UniProtKB/TrEMBL annotation:
Residues 43-231 form the DUF4350 domain. The lineage of its organism: Bacteria, Pseudomonadati, Bacteroidota, Flavobacteriia, Flavobacteriales. It holds the Pfam family DUF4350. It comes from the Bacteria. Keywords: Membrane, Transmembrane, Transmembrane helix. The chain crosses the membrane at residues 7-25, 269-286. InterPro entries: DUF4350 (IPR025646). This is DUF4350 domain-containing protein.
């Protein structure tokens, strides 16, 4: 591992340590999301309400419904007797009611057999609008705090004033034959609006409330606001409570295998940091670990080419004598340089010494030396003489 890689690893380690220190030293931000989740203690969760249901209904059991209302109550419906095998109060607290049309009809059927439905939501199921004969409207011009009160004079002391997280959705039309107004809301100079009603449905009742934020942790802990929530729920009989849970089985959490990691801020930051680190490592490691070795072409040996060029020049000019003399000169120089023999006298003693040192055939060597001596003495050489001499010298080199 070279020095550069060690530096990169050190920087990444420092980055991780720094991120961990910052994460643990920074207080977690307040989550103001309106989840209405009974397991969450964030401002707009319903943890306090859910835990206090047994106090508000001391003789009742509380059951969390973690499936749709249709799936839950349909299992308790007896087709033989055309009745439900269970009874009680269904409670749902949510900004947007997640109840589908089939479940909404199931709740209406459940209420018609003498049970109660309490739903606090700004946007009730569409099926309820048609079946219960009401309409809602939204006045976006509201400002300031909302005064929430009850129609029953005996609950006058339970009125409260809240501001944060409110909307001005109210009941604009009601079926007065079956509907009883239970509560109002009023923003500053705006007129008083109906926000809490009871609808007689069969043998039971359906309670609709349009300000679910009053049941959240934040508002239940503010001042004495819990009295309003207790008064609103006091309309329900002291019977079994079926609480519509936000943590339903089979809830769509997304198809990503990383959905849990991405849902938790610390894990999400760690995941993004890991991806960034890998990306940086890939960028820096893409460089070669050593510099490119430059390929240097070896110097071309031009001696052979030069010799061939000069040889062709002499051959083309028919200067055979000059070529013969040069070949003899080069050959004798080779003998002196390789075998360390004196080439001034080319006699039998020279031939014998050359044969001993070179290991060549004596007769062939003698012929070569005789040819050299003959050509040196000859006044003029022709092309045949040059070819014979060249062949004899080449045979001496190769054999």
């Amino acid at each position: 591992m070279n020095k550069t890689i060690k530096i990169y690893i050190g920087l990444l380690v420092l980055l991780f340590v720094g991120a961990i220190i910052v994460e643990f030293s920074t207080p977690p931000p307040v989550n103001w999301t309106k989840t209405y989740n009974e397991n969450q203690k964030i401002p707009y969760g319903t943890y306090i309400l859910h835990n206090e249901l047994e106090t508000l209904f001391p003789t009742s059991k509380v059951h969390d419904i973690k499936v749709t209302p249709y799936e839950y109550f349909d299992d308790y419906y007896s087709w033989e007797d055309s009745t439900y095998l269970t009874a009680g109060n269904f409670i749902q607290i949510n900004e947007f009611s997640p109840t589908d049309d089939v479940s909404a009809q199931e709740l209406l059927d459940f209420a018609s057999f003498g049970n109660s439905i309490f739903m606090s939501t700004s946007y009730p199921p569409r099926t309820f609008f048609d079946s219960l004969g009401f309409q809602t409207d939204n006045d976006y011009s509201f400002k300031g705090a909302a005064n929430l009160s009850f129609a029953n004079p005996r609950l006058k002391q339970d009125s409260i004033s809240i501001q944060k997280g409110m909307s001005n959705i109210y009941f604009s039309e009601l079926d007065t034959v079956y509907t009883t107004v239970l509560g109002y809301q009023k923003f500053d100079s705006l007129q008083q609006r109906v926000n809490f009603i009871k609808v007689n449905w069969g043998k039971g009742n359906i309670f609709l409330h349009l300000q679910p934020v009053v049941f959240t942790n934040y508002h239940l802990l503010k001042k004495n606001n819990k009295k309003y929530a207790a008064a609103a729920l006091s309309y329900l009989p002291d019977d079994t409570i079926y609480f519509d849970s936000k943590n339903k089985f089979g809830k769509d959490l997304g198809s990503s295998p990383l959905r849990f990691i991405l849902s938790q801020p610390p894990l999400r930051y760690a995941w993004y940091l890991a991806l960034l680190s890998i990306f940086l490592f890939m960028i820096f490691n893409a460089k070669r670990k050593q510099r490119v070795v430059k390929v240097i072409k070896p110097l071309e040996n031009t001696t052979v080419a030069f010799t061939k060029t000069i040889g062709n020049l002499y051959y083309e000019t028919k200067d055979h004598d000059n070529l013969v003399n040069k070949k003899i000169t080069y050959f004798l120089e080779h003998i002196r340089r390789v075998y360390y023999l004196d080439t001034q006298v080319l006699d039998k003693k020279f031939v014998k010494s050359l044969v001993l040192k070179s290991g060549k055939d004596e007769s062939e060597t003698q012929k070569l030396i005789n040819l050299i001596a003959h050509l040196k003495a000859k006044p003029s050489c022709n092309e045949d003489d040059l070819l014979n001499l060249n062949k004899a010298i080449e045979d001496f080199y190769t054999k």
